Amino acid sequence: MHWIALPLPWCDEPAATPGAAEHAAAAGWWALRFTPRVALVDGDTVLLEVSTTERLWGGRDALLAQVLQAWADASVGLPDHPATREAGVPPPGTQAVWGCGQTALVAQAWLRMAQAGRTPSRHNVEGLPLHTLTALRPHVASLERMGCRTWGGLRALPSAGVARRFGAKVLRVLDQALGDAPEAHAWLELPEQFALTAELPALAESADALLWSVSRCLTALQGWLQARQQGALALDLAWRHDLRRIDGVVIAPTQALPVRTAQATQDMAHLRRLLSENLARTALAAPVNQITLRLLESAPLPHRSASLLPPGDRVGGGRDDLGGAPGEALHQLLERLSARLGADHVVAPVLQADHRPERMQQWCPAAEVLGHGCAPPGIQTPDTKAPDATLWPTWLLRPPRRLAVQGNRPCHHGVLRLLAGPHRFEAGWWSAADEGAGDPAHPCAGLALRDYFVAHNDVAGLVWVFRERLAPQPGGAVQKDATQKGAMTAAQPHRWFLHGIFG
Q1: pTM over 0.70
Q2: Domain ranges of the chain
């Protein structure tokens, strides 16, 4: 067996605090991505037994390097703050200390030696000081008066006398440390649902103070997501008020802030920015003494295969998995803008299953659009679009503008020359009457067909125009022959409308 011992990245909850055990366990969730055999010992050490998984990570040295990096990420995931330093969390850039050994107690002992700045030979296990074993600490002073200062010195003493004076537990722990007796550990397990409550070290009266306290919960969330190979889609941050009444006004005991992401993510920096933007627009009703972070929705986040190409810039920006050019993903930018400006002020087009140009897309909040992840059923994709869609304009007028007619030709800053067309559209006879009700000049009033043309003149440039074709009127007024049709056309010429502009 091979054990790795590391200090907990953070854990300063008092033992009597409700939820302290859960909070301490959350500090070790990050290690479960490397091995299922993770244990928390003495409230300050996380132990990993890696003999069965080290080959999956490229060997013992490669695994150790990745474990140390993950520990550093979990440690410096919190912003540098005086309260963080008081809690024992190393500042950013601090080198990790660790211990390795054939037993958990040996690994923990080497860790404590490294924390004390002492690096004796790792092969001399019996030369380890007595205080590196937690069970021996109450008896260190008595043993040192007897001239016994190391594990080897204690082992050399008569077993019967040591058991009578210090108890059989001392010998049993020493045997476990040296590998002569089996060890038993309570392995760390992930809860099925993520919900973490934290008591604040001081009352938070501003969004910034509340966000600093949320950072620790986000670090635990990242460990939970990585161990589950999941990505967060929806979070709920709730906080408890310290006061129930201010100036005679009753205050709700709690407040909550829901946050959604467009794509499943394990990027805690992005989630922290989203929470920051939302909290900046949220007024705290009273000072806060407790927060709860819940994961409402998640999705599988499979690992992508690494690229065989060297790190480098990607088309479209962003950072690749191998450390390419830095940049913020588009969906992350849109999420932050939506949180800052409001969801209704950041919109994106959504294709609709409708052939009419003005109905082919609908503008919806960008956060909702990106959250779908795929096009709804019935929507045309680029592979199934109309073959003549390249003749459609970039910009549409809403509503279409009626054009003057000169010699049965439309005019817009002069007479237009028809270059391409006609392209006939069904104009939505089932809804045309409702859309044009009460306005005879509306292009939808009684309209059943539209003939679209690409037109041009030197002043207007390229434009998209259509000629209306009226639907039969109720009561059976249907054109029966060409003579009647010509007479009707002469009496009531077709109207033309400007609907789109190219460029």
Answers
A1: no
A2: 3-177, 195-244+251-302+328-336, 348-384, 389-501
